[in-house]
Amino acid sequence: MNQHLIDKKRLTGALFLTLLVAAAQGQQATLNPDTVKAGRFDLGKMWTFDNPPKEYFRQTYNFSPDDKWFEEVRLASLRFADYCSASFVSPGGLVMTNHHCARESGVAVQRKGEDLVNKGFFAKTGAEERKVPGLFVDQLVRIEDITSRVQSAISANTSEQAQLQAREQAFDDIKKEYQTREGWKGLELQTISFYNGGRYSLYGFKRYTDVRLVFMPELQLGFFGGDPDNFTYPRYSLDCSFFRVYDNGKPLQTTHYFKFNPNGIRDGEPVFVTGNPGNTERLKTTAELEYDRDYRMPYILQLLRNRSSALQAYNATVKSDSIQNEIFSFENSYKAYNGQLAGLRDPYLLARKSAFEKQFQADARSKGIDAARLTVWEYLTSNTLQLRKLFNDNTYLAPNPLAQGEVLAFAYLLALYGDAINGQPQMADRIRTMLEPPVVKSRSLEEAYLAAHLSEVQTALGNDDPYVKAALGGRSPKEAASYLLSQTKLTNPAFVNDLITKGAMAITTSNDPMLEVARQAVKRYQTASGSARQISARQEVLRQQLGRLLYDVYGTSFPPDATFSLRINDGVVKSYPYNGTIAPIMTTYAGLYDRYYSFNGKAPWSLPARWKNPPMALLREPMCFISTNDIIGGNSGSPIINKNREAVGLAFDGNIESLPGSFIFVPELNRCISVHTGGIIAAMRHIYKADRLITELVGAPR
């Protein structure tokens, strides 16, 4: 194919492959949506332990795990706090998760004069293992289907709001009841929704609260390559850490763990990821995805890019690690959302979603589903069209310090309070508790955030919009931000308290310029947000109906969307085409050093001193590998295991092609990236001399 005719960089992976195949066959490279078919796994492979995919595993891998296999896998898998996944990897309560899940813990146990994030940590003895305050891990020990009870409570009501309230009341009643049941006492209880409400379960977790840091590499290894390498492959990152669970002051003794296998991957071998994927929206309709594509995602990306730029400019002068971490977070989110938007703009992927909807509807009709239930798509589309009309006022005019800066967001709240005092006393009381005068830590940063907001609303709403006119006053966004901040008195507690004391009249007539701008926004925002809340409640009920319909038509042959609940997903170790060549299934430490020298040792490809002169034996050791497993945020720290329930890897990222995975799973190009267990052992052996851990994981060190 002539690369002058088609610019590969402007095409997402799935569409590029479509065009490549068409060209190879001598066909015109024009996408015909009517010929696109839905993929077997467009809704993913995040199977639940409530209904493990035994028959599918048997048919696909000639592997027939029994109930005991799934039970042992479930009990060895952990939820790490409320943001990551983890697993037991030794009979002594040793827990494995990612380095990026452990950074906060490292800071929490750091002592005076230490820098555990940049220097790393290894407890050479059990006595040196440090308890992390507030850290816990949850082990899923009981599961109960509560579907009929919850759905009965919902069905007894007619309005959308009443149905949602009935559902929440049913959740509360069930948890209160089970707290006193034998076998459930003392457990952390959580109600889980599957298929948007097609099924419901009650999960009981055993929570361990004495969790101690054992091993954590340096940030330069755990996040080698930084943001530029994030969501890419080949990859060279030792993104691992180890903790230990203690029970009654002693290391937990458990039979439920994944034995380490440092030699456990081969090309084409089936592997399984267990963990807690956070959130997917693969059951969203095409109309909803188009709304995300046209409105929600561009707004989020604009917000992230402008705020990150403001922080980077500010941090160039103050050089704060905490601000740098915030920048990392913004940049990571930007890259993730940008990949999602690229997927949403890929006509091939949207055509696949549309094809699935058509097939779903046809299958529902062939099953004799009541025609009235099939109108759910029409209602979802109609509601989404209404949300499009409300988007600007409901989003750009909403009080949000990240969007407008602290002072203008506070002015919004104060103006809302002034409006609510006389007509909505309950709302006024709620807002009153939030009315703390803003503390501006950096005038330059506050001005940058406000200027970004003013520029964004100018573009979105237009120069003739009353809010834009009031905010800019004929000035540029940067000039207006400087003027508003220099003239406002809303950072003066005495002035603010005087306004609040005097009440509605003082607030609604004050000539403070920030308040004048805010008053232009509040009524429009209240109107838009009120309508949007009603529509969103209807959408939630409709999504529940769609989820129940999916379950009624297909049962458990499709897995439900991710809900930060324990799942198991399957895949194989497999390469894929990238950048005009083929990605290797595995990287080695030699590649780490090639990247280090290629960038002249500059951050984020720098290395700590003890890594700069490695033994030759380390260079040939594996470091990371790829597989076709279906993961998303929340899976960080998930173990990758083989058929023998042995840990062969540690999931930490996906390739750039996996980012549309929030709404569709494309196994042709989607790859899960993991740290190789052999690479973990190699680092412990050759660099950290962590013989105690090596012995615990694989036996006596060589």
TrEMBL record:
List its EC numbers: 3.4.14.-
Q: Secretion signal: which residues?
A: 1-29
Q: Does the keyword Protease apply?
A: yes
Question: Which EC class heads this enzyme's classification?
Answer: hydrolase
Q: Answer yes or no on keyword Protease.
A: yes
**UniProt keyword list:** Aminopeptidase, Hydrolase, Protease, Serine protease, Signal
Q: Which family does it belong to?
A: Belongs to the peptidase S46 family.
The name of this protein is Dipeptidyl-peptidase
Q: Which organism is it from?
A: Nibrella viscosa
